[in-house]
Predict the 3D structure of the following.
Amino acid sequence: MSRVVLGVLLSAGLVTGFIGQSTFAAGNTDVTQVINAGVLTADIRDASRVTVVSPTFALSTATFSFTCQTTTGTLGTDSQRLYVDNPNTANNGWTLTIAATSGATALWHNVGSTQTFDFNDPTTAGCTDGADADSKAGQLTINPAAGTLTADCPTCVVTNITKGTSTGFSQATTDSVTLLNASASSDDIGRWYLTGVGLSQTLPGEQPVDSYSINLTITSTAS
Amino acid sequence: MKDIFTTHLRTKKYLVLACGILIATLFAAIPHFAFADSGSIGGRPAHPDASNARTASIFIKTITPGETVSDEVEVINNTGEKKTILVYGTDSVPSSGGAFACAQAVDASKTVGSWIKVSETTVEVEANSTKKVSFTISPPANAEPGEQNGCIVLQEQKEASFQSGVALNFRTAIRVAILIPGQINKELSLLGIGVKNHPTKIILNPSVKNTGNVSLDADVTTSIKTVIGTSVFTQTSMYPVLRDQVTEWNFEMDRPFWGGFYYASYDVSYDKNNSFIGSDEPKEMTTLHGQQRVFFVFPHILALLIDALVIGAIVAGVIFYRRYMTRKAAIKKSWVTYEVMAGDTLQGLSKKHHLSWKTLVKANSIKPPYVLTLGKTIKVPGAKQSLVKRSPRKK
């Protein structure tokens, strides 16, 4: 008897679970389906298209040097793809650009910002401080042309989307670098991802040993 | 003993029941957990103008200086979580290559960004829902005629934390194009086309400059032709060219396998009509033709090998042919005539004159069964004069 009661209770629990998910139609036979509008958006996703929370891209580790040196990296890898979705939101083209979140006066900084170096000083190819607002040297160059743009939906293509030219940040001259520029002829409905964008940072000589970070913002703009 | 066994059995039943209820509860809740963080946030114009299709994607306004207009942006949260979203106006800034970009939130607005006032700069939007946020645009009385651009930006509010390397944030923006009434000038000039060679592709880099006071929607056609005029690449795309900006693009084509000399050129068409973005007024298209540029593409290594093989075969063929003709001429110079006599055979004559019988056959076009005809005069190539019995002189 107790076994029967147990079985009934267990079954009731499972049925409750099914009911919690099911939708019962009303007395009439109308069934509705709503598809919400999508948004033009960009983010970092893995190969399974799952969004990567707090994505970062590291440049190659440098060894302390008394002379200027350059480190390189890649923005957009197979496990951290730079995705752009246009679900019929921007019907006359869009741009994808990258800039320092803190603006033209941003600096690479360590924890506590006790050590810094620049990202947008082109003087001597980033090796010496120029006449900009800070007293730091260093220049970050982004090369979208080296990247690969891949269409990631059944009907979309990469045609009519151009990649930006290799560009170094330069205060008051180039504060934003173009990653992608989609024309009006590009697919109004599409999903693409960009990998292999080159990063190159000039490190000034005698930069103290530490871990440094810089925040960059990627903006997708309906234009 | 029986009491202990009964107690144990009862405990076991309660555990099974509890597990069953827990499994059922989780089963009902799983669909919500699985999609908690998918989707994205963004926005679009809340009230597009049916007469201007462009307003479905961007804000387009004609505003008299000193006047204030209002509109709304629809803030969209397609994620499975409630989001706090920042909404703010900024100036537009040119990005590299002349593309449209928006200033950062920390940058002081000097133009359109300062004209835009958003009613709520921080909005909370429930999961899978939207919210309309109103804003006003008030150009100052001294705003100059022509087009001014700004942005409405939407960005999830997040706390910053230190992450070694390049840490990325993301936001979405909508262009705000404002026409201050007055004289509209549309002027575009072509600056030329660059060509860049890469190992696997050719990049065409045309550039233009907008010297007018409004942006232009430019139809850019780039093409590559061979020296004999065969088209190998053509692409036409329409891009906005912002006022006062030099705009350039990078069009890629696969590197030609065979290489060689090519012509690159580009044409740009735009509407000369003094109308604003997305207007349905009749267009007055004008086309500017860029100068052609010649460039050389080095062949693929495989193409070079094939070229080398073909050229080598041709050269070898010429050499062998010349040698053959030279040898033939030499043979013709050294041969003498001989009248076949009774008992003469090909083998005998060839042996006598230190020749191959095949040479005799070939020189005299003798067919199988290779029998000499009595009294016939044949040619003996390279015969020694002292060993040849000349044919009798005719009297």
Remarks:
- Confidence is low (pLDDT under 50) at residues 24-38 of chain B.
- Chain B touches chain A through 73 residues (CB under 8 Å).
